[in-house]
Amino acid sequence: MSSTVSEPNMQKLMDEIEKLIKRANRDHEDKIEHLQKENNELVSDKTNLTTKIEEYEDKIRKLKQENNELVTDKTNLTTKIEEKEDEIRKLKQENNELVSDKTNLTTKIEEYEDKIRKLQQENNELVTDKTNITTKIEEEEDEIQKLKQPCMYSVCAEFSNLKIYNRMSVSPVKGDKGEQCTVWWCPKHSNFDTIVKDFKPNNETDQKILQLGKARNAYWKKNGEIKCCKNDRKKKNSNDFSPPSNWPK
User: Fold this and answer.
1) Of 205, 200, 191, 197, whose CA–CA distance to 242 is shortest?
2) What is the pLDDT of residues 84-96, one digit of tens each?
3) Integer Cα distance of 78 and 86 in angstroms
4) Count of CB atoms within 10 A of residue 247's CB?
5) N or C: which end of the chain has fewer CB atoms below 10 A?
6) Which value, to the nearest 10 degrees, does the dihedral of the CA atoms of residues 124, 129, 131, 132 take?
7) With contact defined as beta carbons under 8 Å apart, do 5 and 13 qualify?
8) Which ranges constitute the DSSP H helices of 159-186?
């Protein structure tokens, strides 16, 4: 047997080998193209990832900056809170002191008001006593004047022809001196009866003074005879006392 290959068979074999080589080249090219495609995709992915990493790093930097700012703000707020708490403690202490002072002052005011009430009561009692004593004195003086009148008339009759009558007379005739009388309750020379109709005292003391004025006014016009409390009496100033605080001038 001969081991040589015939020329036609050789050609056929060469064609087969060439086909295999071409197929192998195409496969390699496909693989290379696929690897290049994958490589391009990886490069693109790397670029995208790098961009994202940079974005994240930028966000991280910003967050760190914000965090630092928040830490600073927290520190400042904590300091302010501590300052406010200290201020509140001081204000509470001051408030407690003021409350204590208010209590003490209120107690003192109540003590003073109690003293004032007692003094007003004593003053009212003194005014009442003065009214009663003044009334009693004037009644006694009036009685004395009545008792003296018979004697006066007899003395006047005995010396009626003497030029010194007016100097010796115990009860000379008085002229009208009303222009000099400024007593606020005088029944003859004041508007007491008109004013008193609508007058309202400011306080209890004024009320007592008004009552005293009414009593004096009534005394000096009793029995229908209106007299001047200043000019028609022996002691000219014994009736003087101040009017209520809001009495019209």
Assistant:
1) 205
2) 998 888 989 987 8
3) 12
4) 19
5) N
6) 140
7) yes
8) 165-168
